[in-house]
């Protein structure tokens, strides 16, 4: 992004600034009505439906996601630091002992005033697993991962219902996107780096946004770790 953008929305959507260029953070200036601000690396902005926002940046990268909504909500700028220091929104799952310790930052959760979206960030330790134990939520919601801030590291993303006939087993690198309409979806990073991604889930039924409403693959236990 190296320009001025004027966005008008028909449906509510958040966007997240994830840009890095030659190791330097890039910022986005925004204006929503009379409100002006600066979005930093990993910050998110939620833009309600039927509203307009103006953005400007030099060489930043943004990702934006949208979902149908039938409700009118409020504009909200969500800075990463406030999410990071709040134990209700920054969760630690897994453990180092089984190599699945990871941080999850829930920006848009079931307490957020919107219809279908749930969104945040996830980051593993070097060489670690996330989305473990394998779980799926195809009846309730679909999901997208966008990998970022991984440098030269890579990971492997699995998507399957049947382990003998997976939908996808792919190398993933910085900037890749994977869609998960169904299936278990664990992933793992290489020893030289971490897995880091934006997750965006969209509920199929308005208001049905329970993050932990999922099905765990039976052979790997019955609790989300």
CATH class of the largest domain: Mainly Beta
Proportion of helical residues: under 10%
Instruction: Compute the number of structural domains.
Output: 2
Judged by helices, strands and strand pairing, the structural class is mainly beta
- CATH fourth-tier homologous superfamily of the largest domain: Jelly Rolls
Uncertain runs are 19-23
Overall description:
This protein has 225 residues and is mainly beta. It has two domains: 2-80, Jelly Rolls; 87-220, Jelly Rolls (Sandwich), CATH 2.60.120.10. The protein has one helix and 22 strands. It has one helix spanning 80-84, and strands at 2-8, 13-17, 20-21, 24-25, 28-32, 35-39, 44-47, 52-58, 62-64, 76-78, 90-93, 102-108, 117-124, 129-130, 135-136, 141-147, 154-159, 168-173, 177-180, 187-189, 196-203, 215-216. The model is unreliable at 19-23 (pLDDT under 50).
Note the main attributes of this structure.
225 residues; mainly beta; Jelly Rolls; 2 domains; 6-stranded antiparallel β-sheet; 4-stranded antiparallel β-sheet; 22 strands
